[in-house]
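Quick one: structure for this chain?
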Amino acid sequence: MIVWVNGASGAGKTSAARELLDLLPGSTLYDPEVVGTGLGQLLPEKRLQEVTDFQDLPVWRRLVVDTAAALLQEVGGVLVVPWTLLRQEYRDEMFGGLASRGIVVRHVLLDPGETILHERLALREAAEEQPAKGLPAYLDALPWLSTDAYVIRTTRLTPRQTAERIAEALRQGVGRCDIVQTPEPTAETVASGVLLFDEHDRVLLVDPTYKPGWEFPGGVVERGEAPAQAGLREVSEELGIELAVVPRLLVVDWEPPSPPGYGGMRLLFDGGRIPAADAARLLLPGAELRGWRFVTEDEAAALLPPVRLDRLRWALRARERGIPINLEAGRSVE
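Got it. Here's what it folds into:
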């Protein structure tokens, strides 16, 4: 298990985490800062200058997850991770990566309040003789953090008292991130997505909890399963909608391997229009999806990662023409 102690810079995460080690026998402190330090010595200076935060490096996020899994395999018990994680897409990627390895995450947020954070950051700024950063980003992230993590108000708490509150929360079972466990692929996969539309021809996108960016309803085709039937099954499981007609193929896209991913075949089907009454009754599995919305093609550009956006655009063209389109890496080969 991992106890992820989140909060703004100056919230007292590391002090509380160290106290928590005494309250959780067999626990180990894991500070992702060491991953950043190592990358600072390994990556070319040019690459390091392209980012202002190690978290913006995909390799950092992968290594934090891989190192956590390796540590747990080596020492067992509980890893206590004091680290500020404010971007929801990074949370999805990293917590999803941990879930795919069967690792339970308890997410705790330490919130001393804006006034105290201002005071602590001002003291840090004076001591380090440089501007303190991070409070605006924390305040922007607070709405989603407050729903994702178990919040502990630490305004009048010492580090020890904060640790005791965390330990009590763990005993009560709160703060658990019940993310769907999607095993890491070990070879190429075939995946089926289904495009569903409203009466304005806007397409339905869903927001997974276990990976960054929005997505189409769908998933990996299981052994012995027809791709179109896999799309029907996924729509039923994810949204509670039973499609009466087998969806029509729009796009076949070969996704090349991109380590650590293996790539494979990606298919998009046309699931047709959803009546407004059915859309109002959509049921989302909380461990897998946190939200849904109908969007235009232009609106989708702000939500989908580039490869999925390319796939959507070609699928919409195929829907207009009435014939499927063959793609390789998001580009038409016809």
